[in-house]
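Help!! Second protein's tokens look totally different from the first
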Amino acid sequence: RHVAEGLQYLASLHIVHADLKPENILVRADKSLVVADLGRSIVATTPQATNGIRGSLFYASPEILRHTGITPVADVFSLGLILFEWAAGELPHTRPWEDWSLSASELVEVLKARVGTNNWLPILPAPYTADFTQLVQGMLKAVCAQRLTAAQVLATSLITESRGAAFDVPIGLTGDDAITARQAVAERTAHMGQIATLARNSLALDKELKASRVLVADLGQQLEKQRSNANIAGEELTEAKKSAAHAKAGESRALEEARLAHASVAQLQASFTETIRQLKGPTSVSPAADGSVSITAKEVRQIEDIHATNAFRLNRVGGELAQVADENHRLRME
């Protein structure tokens, strides 16, 4: 009744909901029903043709499926399907249904062949009363002109007589069937409370899970950063080891060059002494007690030339030794 009242109000404004389905019928705290989600609704003062399917296909009226014009009674057809599904447990045009993997265009063609064709007259299973079955069938007429309007639905005796009844009084059932249905409604209500609690707990767990995922992502980034720093440190350590190896090799080369330089100096000194002997001759006078040797001016010039040459060599060796020392120092610093 509440949904029919909502549809009657929309019809008075020439508005077609065009997407009425169980998901768009909400229950308030006082157990009244409201129609929600008018995102696909249209204004239609006359039968309104559309270029595409509006709303959910399984609850669409024949005129919506065939693009023959939408009027407010399209919503009454959808409400009739919802009542049939509530009473029978399934929609009348999904028995039997074999392929749930159809594309939207394929599904439209299948529904066109099933909804409102071939003496379309959905029959509710026992034990529903004839009045209730007649009401649902009147809402599911394939021809718009023959279909009940929302106002006519509200005017039926089944609705008017139950207007003051409680929410849990079954409509369309009598006697023991009504008692059984009322018990089933009570059990379902209790189950719905449990489901609501589980849903709230699930939402809380989802929030915690999202927070945990964010935390894990942050920790992952920190770990990746630490790994990157560790890789950089490892590379620096490798370079340091290479530099130390180069420094050690440089030190060995420097020591070897220093040894060679000392050997060169000793050799030069020996050569200098031999030069003096050659200048003085093998029968030269022995050195004086203080170690001095008397030589002529010519011999002095010759010795000076030899000394200059040797000094040049010594300077060159000294420069090479200085370069080796600098390189050794640099390698040690690295």
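Here's the second one for comparison:
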Amino acid sequence: MKISYNWLNELVPTHLDIDEFCEKLTMFGLEVEEVVQLGKNLENIVIGKVVSVEKHPNADKLSLCKVDVGNSEPLSIICGAPNVVKDILVPVAMIGAKLGDFEIKKAKLRGVESFGMICSENELGVSDEHSGIMIIKQDIEPGTPFADAMGINDNIIEVDVTPNRPDLLGMIGVAREVAVMLNTEYEHPEITFEESEVKTKDEISVIIEDSEKCPRYCARMVHGITVKPSPSWMQRKLIASGLRPINNIVDVTNYVLLEYGQPLHAFDYTKIKDKTIAVRTAKDKEKMMLLDDTELKLHSDNLLITDAEHPLALAGIMGGLDSSINDNTKDVIIECAYFDPRNIRASALEYGLQTDSSYRFERGMDPNSLIEVIDRAAQLMQLTGGGEISSGVVDCYPHKIEPKVLPLRVSRANSILNAKMSADEVENYLNKFEFATKKTSEDTFEVTIPTFRPDIEREIDIIEELARCYGYNNVESYFWINRIDNKQKRTVARLAKNHLISLGFFEVNNMSFASPDDLDALNISDDDFRRKVVELANPIGEQFSTMRSTLIPDLLKNTALNLSYKFENFKLFELNRIYLKEREDTFAEPTYLTGVIVGEFYPFYWKEEQRATSFYDVKGVVESILSKIHCTKNITYKVSNQPYYEKNSKADIFLDEKKIGSCGIIKDDVLKSFEIKAPVLLFDIDLSRIIPLYNEKDIRFKEIVKYPPVLRDIAVIAPSDIEVGTIEKLIKSVGPNIIKDVQLFDVYTGKQIKQGCRSLAFNITFQSETSTLTDKYVDKLFDNIVNKLLREHQIELRQE
């Protein structure tokens, strides 16, 4: 946003030099990016009047001009611009003037001397216009310094306006902020004019066919206006703000845009068919010609302003050529509207049309200030071009947008800002921002937020405004103790992440939004706890309408994406929260660790033969994770009933008989739902159940046992429904202080094994911490193991 310091001082006297003002403005929250001093580089540039224009004797495209610059004799200047004619006022760079790095000197062009240069707007830095010389449409004495004549001895302050503050895209909005900053008042334009007896509603009708894309549309009529150059004071402000004056009608719409930040448009009334304005979406392949001679082919998402037959404007972006103002225009319709920012942004991006109007509309204007703005435009048009203003405004506003009302706690504001503001001080600060307040208790207010402030959505936003008034420098620093941080959670997460990364896993972070269809793709039953999803009140689409109740679908989508890029072997994991609805008003956010293994577990190595991954690879990963976070006691595995795993390759993980997760191989029909054509191994662990058990103080170093271990193998015939974990637990129970480890190393089912059973082979490690074990002692323990297996589970020792 370019702010003219001269114009700003007309609205709110600052009484500060430019440097001090910019420092205060930045500290108030409006970051000053640059200050440009207009007129500084315009020395020796004066106003000149072209007295005569003759053809250059030695060049077809050059003209020999006599220019009166206030001296006794006119200067002879050679000009190549096509628009130079007699009796126009132009800016003249005298000998010695500097335009950037270029210094004007006496020159001889094709044998004829030239004593200066007639300049274009681009050469003067006024605008980007360079198709011809700048023609000044004001009555100014020749020889007047250009900077003084155009009123551009000014400081232009470039302020970085964030997208959520559209109210700062106009001079009045900036003046309002500055008035709060300086604890003073600002001047609001006084809008007074006489209306004719003719009513606007009798001359033009407005129909809004899509009130979602255009919630409000206003129109006003001005009759008998004269199109001519706008007055010098208006031209000076436009030029200082980087806009080129055109005529009084167009200049008024641009001036009000700069003043209020609200875009307007003016139509030639005689070009409106059936005197009807309709706001509708375009028909597919409908065409229109814009003011810049660009022809657009439109579609049903584009919003148009039309008459009974043809498009008049691409709403909020640019007007059409057919209804544009020209020198013969007498009757003008002024448009002032509020359009849906999303629609304007989409159309502007689609057609590459970034205009001053679209820049503002796509940030969201104030829907409730349109009457004041359109009245201001009518006043200025009458002031600059005469004419009569018809009575009233055609205001089509189907569903009024009401201001937000938010609660504010004074104690909460003081707590956050470490301040001691009284309720009266808080109310005074809010009223400065034109926020209406209603005191509901000694500590609370109901604050009505004006619709020109769409950025204020919560109590904390109001507190931020209070901080600006109170002064950031006045906020006392103090030591904040973060009591929210969970050290156990942070430590367990770090250990788990680092371990998985060391195994070749890559961490992913997905959005917390999900689609209800994701659970269907996993075949999850209706009574599963993961069906208790948290639904979003205002989702951006059906595919993002709930919060995630499991991390599995997103990881499978990540898998499909990586496979589509021809990655065949990879491992991914995500450690994040899921969201569950416990009751109507209470929710749970447990932390889960979920990972997938796709393709080969180990990278290709020429010296070793590759092997396919199996269920035991993913189970091994789970065991290594639990070992890393020191959670190996009382861990058991049981056959899982999760619907997305293969029948004989799945296990649920239990800690103290409480389920904490699962692992297995994903079923083919589930993979097909996610368009995956490769085997996928999965683990899914509820870390929230493990984190509270982690205790760094429980970690102790132990002396290495100096007595040798004794290793024995045992092969048994066990019923197929007895889990391996149960057998391992029973074996360890025979001698818990001596039997250090039990490892399954073979599973066999075949003709030699009776139906309903399987052969399991275990390796048992016996070791004492106090003495060397004898064979006799180990044999006795071994016999006890065999007897206990047979007695409790009818598990027999395999003989052959």
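Reply: Different proteins will give different token patterns, so don't panic. The chain has a mean pLDDT of 90.
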